[in-house]
Amino acid sequence: MRQTLILFLLIALNYSCLPRDTFFTIYGEIKGIPDSTLITLYDLDQQFNFDSAYAYEGKFQFHGKVETPTIAWLRYGNEYAIIIVENTEMEFKAPLKKMHLYSEINGGQEQALQNELKKLQLPYELRASAVYDSLSGSLYEDEQQKDRLIRSFSVAQNRSQEIYVDFGLNHPNSILGMDILYRNRQKIDRDKLKAVYAAIGDHYRDSEIGRALSTYLHEELIAEGKVVPAFKAKSMEGEVLQLEDLRGNFILLTFWSAYCGPCIQQNQKYLASLEELQERVKLVHFSIDKNEEDWKIASQRDQISWYNVSDLQGPKGKVKTQYEVQGTPATFLIGPNGKLLKNLEGYNPHLDLVSEIDQVVANYQ
After folding, report:
1. Residue 231 phi/psi, 5° resolution?
2. Contact 284/246 with Cβ under 8 angstroms?
3. d(Cα 196, Cα 185) in Å, to the nearest integer?
């Protein structure tokens, strides 16, 4: 325990001399958390932990640097709270349970907006949480009461989601607002989204999310029965693959990432079958990772031996956006004429992907 305290103090002293607004420092406290509990900052876009700390007497600190305000989960075990990390001093306080509802976070302009959004959503999130507890604990008398609880949960969740999207539409000149718009782009009327985008300042248009929204609004997007968007990307060895070079073949294109759990499950489940499938279909894996080393390590782990490429633009890259990928893995079966035949979003452990593909290929005309 003494060693933990000494380490904690040394880290704090080491970062006390860093200039403000160059690095972030988060002073955290979770009441009742056991000593030596590991707490992490999880990047929701990149899907990896970019910082971690151990609790001592309920307190902990995070230190580091982000290139842009980063929407993250501060979490331990199954508990989490949303925090927008900026290069400034921040404070985090929360109870041991239901941190996502009861956490108090201060510091940073984007976090101030997140606090405003949370305040608007909180009545509905509290209602949904209470109903969920009743359902998961079977705290209902009969099926009719259960159905009422389910409807109540759905109403609360839908209202919270409506507030979330409206907040993005009303605060487009912010990282939080643009992130909301991008994540919900398919749910927002296209003309309305174009009008909102037209009013965004140049600073945010030139951001990663701004460029992704521009791609969605102004570039060709994938659609079933139409020729898929062309792209070129590089392998880990630097070889360029142009999708059009594979025209004349069936192509199975899968978007994935190194830290995506369902992607790992799908790769492992279909490894042997996909290698056999290469006789009939060209297999292409497209990584949406930004970190090349992470991509390489994951490729070796999953034994990917077929076409394996990336643009290293991350989860808001142009190709990923054009292919309307919301979650990974996302798999597309493309015909010899370059047209989309089938779109499979996510990993379904009960689906025989190979049989599904073989059936489409066999019926192709």
Report:
1. -155, 160
2. yes
3. 12
Averaged pLDDT of the chain: 91
Contact present, 35 and 55 (Cβ < 8 Å): yes
Judgement on whether residues 91 and 213 belong to the same structural domain of the protein: no
Find out whether 53 and 60 touch, Cβ atoms under 8 Å. yes
d(CA 160, CA 318): 30
Residue type, position 34, single letter: P
Reported as a pLDDT band with limits 50, 70 and 90, residue 274 is confident
Integer Cα distance of 231 and 35 in angstroms:
50
- Which residues constitute the domain of residue 71? 2-106
Asked if the structure places residue 328 within a domain, the reply is yes
Note whether 304 and 258 are same-domain residues.
Answer: yes
Mark 147-168 as b/e (b = at least 16 C-beta within 10 Å).
eebeebbeebbebbeebeeebb
The tokens for 246 are: 């594979």
3-state secondary structure of 326: coil
Q: Are residues 160 and 99 in the same domain?
A: no
Distance CA 23, CA 20 (A): 6
Q: How far apart, in whole angstroms, are the C-alpha atoms of residue 44 and residue 79? A: 15
Q: Is residue 111 in a domain?
A: no
> Cα–Cα distance between 105 and 29 in angstroms, integer?
11
**Which of these, 323, 294, 89, lies nearest to 221 by C-alpha position?**
323
Say which CATH number the domain at 295 has.
3.40.30.10
Q: For position 16, which CATH number holds?
A: 2.60.40
Asked if pLDDT for residue 195 goes beyond 80, the answer is yes
Residue 365 has pLDDT above 80, yes or no: no
110 close to 104: Cβ distance less than 8 angstroms? no
Cis omega (within 30 of 0) for bond into 329? yes
